[in-house]
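cache lookup: miss for this entity combination. No prior model stored, computing from scratch. Input as submitted by user K.M.:
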Amino acid sequence: MDKILVGLKRVVDYNVRVRVKSDGSGVETDSVKMSINPFDEIALEEALRIKERGEASEVIVMTIGATDAQQQLRTGLAMGADRAILVESDTAVSPLGVARAFKSIIDRDSIDLVLLGKQAIDNDNSQTAQMLAAIWGRPQATFASKLEISGDTATVTREVDAGLEVIEINLPASISVDLRLNEPRYVKLPDIMKAKKKPLEQIALSDLGIDQGPIIKEVTFEPPAERSRGVMVDDVAALVSALKDKGLV
Amino acid sequence: MSKILVVAEHDGSRLNASAAKTVACAAGIDGALIDIVVLASTADAIAAEAAQLDGVNSVLTIERAENEHAVTAVLAPQIAALAEGYSHVFGPSTTFGKDLMPHVAALLGVNQVSDIMKVESSHTFQRPVYAGNAVVTVTAPEDSVVVATVRIASYSAVGADNSATVQTADVSVDVPTHTRFVELQSGASDRPDLQTAAKVVSGGRALASEENFRIIYELAEKLGAGVGASRAAVDAGYVPNEMQVGQTGKIIAPDLYIAIGISGAIQHLTGIKDAGTIVAINKDEEAPIFEVADIGLVADLFTAVPELTKALS
């Protein structure tokens, strides 16, 4: 295998307590810490391990977003990716649009394997890897918790509701990764310096000439219904009687 | 009028409980005509179950050997071919539906509405984003098919007093062989299924070992409950992955949820906020789980849980 393409999305950091804007137009993102989508970081870590085992020769990170997503690509380069591609768009891009942007880079650069996070923690769509497989006409393996490459095939263990499902796929393929595939490495300072010299290509989304499909419009955002604090009981006997009052035991 | 195709999940012999909830969501669209499709190697028994679901117009079966296991690359082209003439195609937001439906959407050239939690109208829906920290109302265009997954924790199953017609769907498309099912490693148990159980008992990191989880199983057995766990307990290796409840695990809505030794990280709370009654037992009175619990007990779980199990005898 030659090239692995990894998707990195810039999202509100995992630890930020997200708040809906008072006018309902979205969530607060001003002066909020932004990071690589955690599942994408796991995808990149896996790609780097495959390369370090000598099973691939190049790891490319790619994002579709505004100019400031360069930060996340630089972090990906510092982790060990060889080069980066920023497909620039100032407005949000639909999952089908993202999948089609990946497809055009796959065709241009002859990609052998695409690794993506199983979902982005902002819009929680979980669509891109599956859509990419569909338009590429190649296998998909979502929610991967183990990945073994053997020549032109891969054996993937998937986290499904009933347990762990094992499938065998031909390569090239589109794989989305789950939480337990690996633990991403920490970036070291010298690597951050080195990453500044690695190539970062910028392409305008409009230059790819892709159709984003019929757009699902986000009309209004609101905070979720909150559960309120209930009662505290003093001991197990009081708990049992409270459950009996509710007819639950 | 809305004509809705619901894709049924099953294990090869039984209909999955998510189907009745997906139909409940579809039935929320005014005047909807709802068909269910069962793709299987042998569909009879599954189709018979699907035909009982209230609100279903007809059950369509597509039987072929390649449909023995739910391989998206195999199923999706068949569903896309069948989708012609339907205004909506719905699947459950389980790992089956999450894997399959975006692939179907892309074959049909549309984006997908993920995790419908509420139907406003035929093309307007509510869905959770940011791990449930916000709810967004979305509108899908009226001039293209709506492909969606349904957040099953938001719906109650429809009844099963129907007798819809069952018919074979005539779909002949080529399916690829590049993706092959190998095996399912399942920790199958006799306990109620976590995603559909009326009662669930979950344990957290405070259980401190796989061996100590025994007291959780004993309480669950007494209650006839399913067993779940926090991510911390799964990461620590006390229980297998499929027992994880929360944003990256299972999102559940039992009538009774008992959280034991679980602090209540936001990612865990995302998975349980539709539960009927939440009970929390935790040594730390400051634990965030108490902010959402209907009944809280500050106690050492190693004495309180066996005592509770005994009190229920």
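stored under new cache key. Chain B has nine helices and 16 strands.
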